[in-house]
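stuck on this one:
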Amino acid sequence: MIGTTDIIITITYILFIVTIGLWSGTRKQRGRSGPSGEYFLAGKTLRWPMIGLALFATNISCLHLVSLAQSGFDSGLLNGNFEWMAAFTLVLLALFFVPFYIRSGVSTLPDFLERRYNRACRDWLAFVSIVSAVIIHISFSFLAGGIVLETLFGINMYTSIIVIAALTGLYTIIGGLRAVVVTESVQSVVLIAGAVIITVAAWSKMGGWQPMTEVLSHHNALDKLSMIRPVGDASGMSWIAVFLGYPVLGIWYWCADQTIVQRVLGARDENHARAGALFCGFIKILPVFIFVLPGLFAYALYQSGSLDLTSLQEGNAVNTKGIYTLMITQLLPGGLIGILVAALLSGLMSQIAGALNSIATLASFDLYKRFRPETTDEKLVKVGRWSSAIALLVSVGLLPLLNRYQSLFEGINDVIAHIAPPITCVFLLGVFWKKASAGAAQLTLWAGSLLGAVVYAVNKLYPANVLGQVPFMMMAFYLFVVCVGMQVALSYVYPVVHTAQSKTLYWKSLREPLQSRGWSGLGNYKVLSVLLILIMATLYWFFK
């Protein structure tokens, strides 16, 4: 439980964010599109700092703060791979995918698939994107946030979730993408500040890096500092699983998921879109140090007797899902606790707001307008708002089912590992291979999604089977290889017949997207890409 001062800080912050969201979403802007473009794509006026911060805020939720600290306690820096590998994927987004999306003028990624392939591909991706947004981006985030708020405030988990859902839905449904991006930018700063505070507090309590490594060495746990594990590691996250499996998950998430890419689609031009994606790549360096490392400090503090885990004891075991909440209450003074709670709410509200706006866009542009092509912009906005409200209700209804997961972060990535392979496949082949045909892509999406669902169900119902022993990252890679083989073979069975539009929607060579000069100086997308790759390579070498 927390004190009155911290409660006041938390409530003040919530009211501030709702006010900012409503103000920014309802004020008049001179955008370059009509009412629907203004609502769904912020009139295509977004600049690179706002895009980068919004990408980061949409990606990082309360779930990340809670579960990455838990993983830091349990397995050390290992799960930080999900954060650092994202930087490489964001380079791919900036160099190869952004130019396609901006130049084609699409409003949604399913719209892009229709132009490159056919209507059936568009419909399927729209459906999968809405389902994944509801489950992955909203429900899981609600669950993590609800657990934290119940622990801190003593409020029933579902009651606190419903209140946050109502407030987030208020400014998101009314204000559209501009309200989402403006509030996400503010919340990124608050979230990072809060995470830095808990990191500094843990560092100070431990006495620095050297005392922590001494404790780890004493308990034969120095491997917790390594992010590259050998093949056969018990975690299932060996170096080969990370470097083969993550790109399958990452390309879907960062390059082909509407919830994420919609921030890029709202850019004022290609240079801002590219710089914004790369800016997010630089920010993604931070989570290992401010989200995962505090959990590792907590482990060292616990082993040295400086952190009391009695409240997390369940029999002889420790329920480490509450480790972040425990650190907040035991390491921070009053006042700072309120700021940390505000940071948690920042992550929660950002994730939900971004997903709701993407669902609104997909439901109105990709589903409703298909059957009613004469629909006015004003009507599309109304449909989008109703879709957001319904998605919010469905996501809350799923909470009792999803609450059965022991580790929420691994649960999410396990789900993504079975959803992503066919989508990553059709996007990659569609962008880089001119012979990728519409019929092949359509069948690959259907068969690949069915295969992923069957494998997931079998592994959950019969975990002792052979497939159930395969780490989810390697499973993602194997499913991806099957999908690639399927689409390549089917593209020869059903040869491509390009339309005037589709023949412009693939790169003739890897050099083609790099011919754009971009900004001069350090802000050039090529310079930023090389710099980011060098920094990431150096970090991986240091923490190998």
Remarks:
- The chain has a mean pLDDT of 84.
- Residues 151 and 478 are 40 Å apart (CA to CA).
- The beta strands are 313-314, 317-318.
